[in-house]
Design goal:
This protein has about 180 residues and is α+β, with helices and mostly antiparallel strands. Helices cover about 20% and strands about 30% of the residues. A hairpin with a 7-residue loop joins strand 8 and strand 9 (about 165-170).
């Protein structure tokens, strides 16, 4: 008879310990928030910083090494664990970041930098995608004006859907993500 209460106590303690073990198996989301804030140079909610904390419903496997943070790229920072293969996108608020001057980040009036437009709407452009091993190109039409480094929409014809591409030089745009080119 004394064994029954002992077994019940052991089962209850095992059930209570299980959530603590489960927490150790998941990545610390506060650590991810801190890594992103340090990388972009702005806190959550600040211009250039993360729009909001990482969604607490995420259950990412605990990364054995420090997750890497890339970006900002297209308005987001990419946090990934190469060891386990997971990757998340953390949206950033516009207007700032590590590249912004302190005056621009904290509200002082900053003068916009005038850049030369090298691609105009309606211009034919050479769309390039590839890396060091291969490249593919196609003639497209620009939907927007753009300076070197800007991301613009281009399309094959009026009926086709737009493709986002980065202006490389006059008359040449590149698909983002092929950086070894």
């Amino acid at each position: 008879m004394t064994k029954l209460p002992l077994i019940a106590i052991l089962a209850l303690s095992a059930a209570c310990a299980q959530p603590a073990l489960a927490q150790q198996r998941f990545e610390n989301l506060d650590r991810i928030d801190g890594l992103v804030a340090m990388t972009v140079g702005a806190k959550i909610g600040e211009p250039g910083g993360p729009m909001a904390p990482v969604d607490r419903r995420l259950r990412l496997a605990a990364c054995p090494s420090l997750p890497s943070v890339e970006g900002p790229t297209f308005g987001a920072a990419i946090v990934k664990c190469d060891t386990l293969g997971w990757r998340i996108r953390v949206p950033l608020s516009g207007g700032g970041g590590a590249s912004a001057t302190p005056a621009a980040r904290y509200g002082a009036a900053a003068r916009p930098v005038q850049r030369d437009i090298v691609v105009k709407r309606g211009d034919p452009v050479q769309l390039i995608a590839g890396n060091a091993s291969f490249s593919v190109s196609r003639v497209m039409v620009a939907d927007e004006d753009g300076a070197i480094g800007d991301t613009i929409r281009v399309r094959e014809d009026r009926k086709s859907g737009p493709v986002l591409a980065q202006v490389v030089e006059m008359g040449t745009v590149r698909i983002p993500g092929f950086n070894d080119f």
